[in-house]
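Aim 2 progress. For Pirin family protein, the working sequence is reproduced below.
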Amino acid sequence: MSNLERDPREIRCGADAGGGREVLIGREVPLGGPRAMTVSRTLPGRDRRMIGAWCFVDAYGPQRAVMRVPPHPHTGLQTVSWLVAGEVLHRDSLGTLQRVRPGQLNLMTAGRGISHSEESPDTVLHGVQLWVALPAEQRHTAPAFEHHPSLPVLPGPGFEASVVMGSLGGVTSPATTHTPLVGAEVMVDGTCELPLDPAFEHGLLLLEGIVAEVEAGPLVYLPPGSGGLRLSGRGRVLLIGGEPFGEEIVMWWNFVGRSHEEIAAYRKDWMEGEGFGAVEGFDGAPLPAPVLPGTRLKPRGRVR
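Predicted structure tokens for this construct:
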């Protein structure tokens, strides 16, 4: 999914963080025209920009909508598409044509540069779109795409967790990762103790139902240090986490880079049709890049 804001703000991410549990309130962002959908964006937030290498969280639905995101570029990140309801058709400049449905994972690694589109029929859509920042040694890797029709499950008393990315409780997803992290959909049924890696910081987002520890809407941030998390209720919770990302990065529009000059070069290449390939089969023109802000983009820390 793209950041479709016409005047995107500089998104500053990277180094040191501290403190305890935080409630990260999202902001509503419309994607496209009058029939398009609205998402709640909780990462990057006003104060906290990343959780591990996770740098972007859009949650949407359930709502009846048409997703139509024209071809657009990405660099230096992975996109993670996870649905609770509906379906989305992915096309990219590698020639990929792949639908994703609930319980399946579409994972796109942008690396040095890729372009893609996403669209759905007029249907009820409910899901999340997430980005993972690539570390310096992998951010110029060749672009790639993976579809995982099924994922391993960690069962436990009062819960069942589909491990989407990384590892949870000794169960590891087949999806490619480049930093120590976790992404999982946790079905809570009663009271449970969810295992956590104490070296990770974590985020929790309620997707549906009622879970006492996670209110509907915001993303709950948990600092490193805990080896477990008690949850109670009946609902579906998204868990993300990872080792605190130690690099400073610059996020602007759909690019992750390390400097103003790099972002400006990515934008120039996209506008000139260089470096990102072409998406075949989408009925429409690619998205033009917004104008760069009048001030220099600077790499920043993970928190403001």
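Confidence is low (pLDDT under 50) at residues 10-19. This observation will guide construct design in the next reporting period.
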